[in-house]
Amino acid sequence: MAAVVEVEHLRKTYRGVVAVDDLSLAVEEAEIFGLLGPNGAGKTTTVECVEGLRRPDRGTIRVLGLDPARQTGELRPRIGCQLQEAALPARIRVWEALDLFASLAPRRIDWRPVLEQWGLQGRRGASFSRLSGGEQQRLFIALALINQPEVVFLDELTQGLDPAARRVAWDLVRSVRDRGATVVLVTHFMEEAQQLCDRVAVVHQGRVAALGAPQELINRHGGGVRVVFSAPVDADLGWLERVAHVRRVARHGPRVEVAGDGPVLVHVGAALVAHALEPADLRLEQPTLEDVFLHLTQPPAPERS
User: Fold this and answer.
1) Whole-model pTM?
2) Which of 125, 186, 207, 219 has CB atoms 3.0–4.6 Å from 155's, for a disulfide?
3) C-alpha span between 246 and 272 (Å, rounded)
4) Does residue 233 sit within a domain?
5) Looking at the 3D structure of the chain, how many domains does it have?
6) d(Cα 207, Cα 153) in Å, to the nearest integer?
7) Cβ neighbours of residue 70 under 8 Å, at least 6 residues apart?
């Protein structure tokens, strides 16, 4: 599948501080691609360079075959951008903002269905300053999609949205992808990335630390499954480390975590029964994208002496 966004050896500094350091990635056509990373990792700077809002110090960028730094006029009508920080004139009304942005699209767009899609029908005549934070966020997303872009960049898509509105936003983003557009999503919500993204790049200290499908990264970096249960604090569980498929046993007060692989739950359960222990809360916990994120971006905990 063709790449619609190509970034090679991108570097960007601010007054000697390195924000992005030799970052390379490619986003394929009609996929939802996630950029994950801690604050200051370089995610937003990368996206702003790709959008043509900042000039990189070094490296090459192509979006839809165009250089965003030199061919901004050709690229801008074909992409949509929802920035992490944005504002509109305080007195502009919701319908006026949508009508204005629609008029700038290469072809005339009927903005009225967007009101209902993003839950803004009841706020049609409200001024921007009268909108709640979540309503302003929904308006910015609607404006980013109003020109039916080929590539859309969404920076913190659901920040400020309640859980119900977040689910609606996810469905609408999927529909954007399903009609053939490409979505680049910058997010801090690991569940959002795991639910939405076809592939993700974990960015750490200005570089790509890992790239792949969410489940692929979970399998590679998630640390395996965990069997979790409660046991008396003074119970001797040293024998658990000798059970088949068990890698590691950790205790946090009454909570016991057994890391392992394969059918570890069956073996641990059988061993507990054999030792006259039948915890009512015995369960299997699968690793998540958050486990991958923490593994790749957090320093290891110091060993206790």
Assistant:
1) 0.84
2) 186
3) 13
4) yes
5) 2
6) 19
7) none
